């Protein structure tokens, strides 16, 4: 069975090099770069290779600064507090390795945090003899107020750092970062936010959030090339934060204020074109819809809500979280118990791809003891795709329970 997707109107999807035969409902995993952005990056790469010294030595600092200023404007923060990193996981690791830990310091994380970041926390905790406290956030049946309460309950006099997602990767929940930040500031506790899914998914104003550290990807919902992300550091912590790889900056910076940006801007020879393409990607996406990013935020969120409601109706279940707690990612529990151990890719995910040409992740939720399906909603998606998903899911689950 190989359902033909070409009968659907591709619309904006034609502007991406995505396979037109695939219903791509997994933008959240790795993003997807528009053809125009890819071509523009290739132009930059050819320019770099035509005269590498001019590009990387003479021009790069100014070009990076221009890109930083435009990204900072988009994120509501001063450029002096922002540096580039390859991805959000890299940003989290950078902060964990920059903090001068003391034995028995405590780090608070959540059970819905990204696995890679939890691994990083466990590694640094083992190295420095730290204690990890895990906030158990329920899903479904969760509210913003409950999240704040659970985080406060996990704090102790030894808490040195709290690490939380802004939008949880597995469940797509928007956590109340600003409210949590206020509570942590009262207790003089640093707050690191993994905003891997935030930029381009929801409006972000870092100055308003009041966090200590924040990292977000540009390659996901901003559609910049892979390898483009950033790290924000509040003024009072800038001097202690350094990249994981130290290069020439300590020898070249004439004052401490220069060292922060210079250290991250040059960590050795690399391809900086992904960073330089961020403003182009932001402006390109904004040009696709009347009203720019405001329309994109509203449209994608509405589509995700419609897709979620369709699946919940098909599965005959209640919506798993309040509407204000999700935007472009929507996760719905499935009536499938978790295998022991769970496969790397669930057979249902394979069947949806092989039989229906639908790319969408099936995720285990150990806390619930079941699997979940997570849909993404982006500018190239449309309602008929989620209707196809609902139909295919209904038929595949019916087969599972008929055996």
Task: Please give a quick description of this structure.
Helices cover 43% and strands 15% of the residues. The chain has helices at 27-30, 35-50, 52-75, 88-98, 115-128, 144-154, 177-186, 206-209, 249-252, 256-265, 273-276, 278-286, 292-315, 347-356, 383-402; strands at residues 23-24, 82-85, 106-110, 131-135, 159-165, 190-194, 213-217, 229-233, 329-337, 358-359, 362-365, 370-376.
Task: Give me the secondary-structure topology.
Layout (H helix, E strand, L loop, with lengths): L22 E2 L2 H4 L4 H16 L1 H24 L6 E4 L2 H11 L7 E5 L4 H14 L2 E5 L8 H11 L4 E7 L11 H10 L3 E5 L11 H4 L3 E5 L11 E5 L15 H4 L3 H10 L7 H4 L1 H9 L5 H24 L13 E9 L9 H10 L1 E2 L2 E4 L4 E7 L6 H20 L1
Parallel strand pairs: 1-10, 3-4, 3-5, 5-6, 6-7
Antiparallel strand pairs: 2-8, 7-8, 9-12, 11-12
Helix pairs in contact: 2-3, 4-5, 13-15, 14-15
* CATH superfamily heading of the largest domain: Type I PLP-dependent aspartate aminotransferase-like (Major domain)
Spatial order of strands in the largest sheet: 2-8-7-6-5-3-4
Name the shape in a single word: globular
Number of helical regions: 15
Looking at the overall shape, the CATH architecture of the largest domain is: 3-Layer(aba) Sandwich
Instruction: Describe the largest sheet.
Output: 7 strands, mixed
Helix residue percentage: 40-55%
- Cα separation of the termini: 19 Å
Question: Helix/strand-derived class?
Answer: alpha/beta
Average pLDDT taken over every residue: 94
The strand count comes to: 12
Determine the CATH topology of the largest domain. Answer: Aspartate Aminotransferase, domain 2
CATH C-level name of the largest domain:
Alpha Beta
Gyration radius from CA atoms, angstroms: 22 Å
* Content of β-strand: 5-15%
What's the helix-strand series?
EHHHEHEHEHEHEHEEHHHHHEHEEEH
**Stretches with pLDDT under 50, minimum 5 residues:** 1-8
Total domain count = 2
């Amino acid at each position: 069975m190989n359902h033909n997707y070409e009968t659907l109107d591709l619309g904006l999807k034609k502007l991406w090099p995505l396979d037109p035969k695939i219903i791509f409902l997994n933008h959240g995993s790795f993003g997807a770069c528009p053809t125009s952005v890819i071509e523009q990056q290739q132009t930059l790469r050819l320019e770099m290779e035509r005269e590498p010294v001019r590009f990387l030595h003479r021009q790069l600092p100014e070009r990076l600064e221009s890109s930083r200023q435009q990204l900072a404007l988009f994120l509501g923060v001063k450029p002096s507090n922002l540096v580039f990193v390859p991805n959000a996981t890299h940003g989290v690791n950078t902060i964990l390795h920059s903090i001068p830990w003391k034995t028995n310091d405590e780090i608070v994380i959540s059970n819905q945090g990204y696995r890679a970041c939890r691994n990083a926390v466990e590694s640094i905790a083992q190295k420095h003899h730290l204690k990890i406290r895990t906030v158990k956030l329920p899903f479904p049946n969760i509210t913003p107020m409950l999240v704040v309460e659970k985080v406060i309950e996990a704090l102790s006099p030894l808490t040195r750092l709290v690490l939380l997602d802004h939008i949880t990767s597995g469940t797509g929940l928007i956590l109340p970062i600003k409210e949590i930040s206020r509570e942590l500031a009262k207790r003089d506790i640093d707050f690191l936010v993994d905003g891997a899914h935030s930029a381009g998914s929801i409006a972000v104003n870092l100055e308003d959030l009041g966090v200590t550290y924040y990292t977000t990807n540009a390659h996901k919902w901003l559609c910049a090339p892979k390898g483009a992300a950033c790290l924000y550091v509040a003024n009072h912590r800038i001097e202690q934060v350094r990249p994981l790889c130290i290069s020439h900056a300590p020898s070249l910076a004439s004052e401490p204020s220069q060292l922060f940006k210079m250290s991250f801007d040059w960590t050795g020879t690399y391809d900086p074109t992904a960073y330089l393409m961020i403003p182009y990607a932001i402006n390109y996406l904004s040009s696709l819809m009347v009203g720019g990013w405001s329309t994109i935020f509203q449209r994608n969120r509405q589509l995700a809500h419609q897709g979620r409601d369709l699946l919940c109706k098909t599965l005959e279940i209640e919506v798993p979280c309040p509407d204000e707690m999700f935007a472009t990612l929507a996760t719905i529990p499935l009536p499938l118990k978790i295998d022991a151990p769970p496969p790397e890719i669930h057979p249902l995910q394979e069947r949806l791809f092989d039989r229906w040409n639908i790319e969408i992740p099936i995720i285990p939720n150990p806390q619930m003891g079941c699997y979940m399906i997570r849909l993404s909603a982006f500018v190239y998606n449309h309602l008929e795709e989620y209707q196809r998903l609902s139909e295919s899911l209904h038929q595949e689950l019916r087969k599972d329970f008929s055996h």
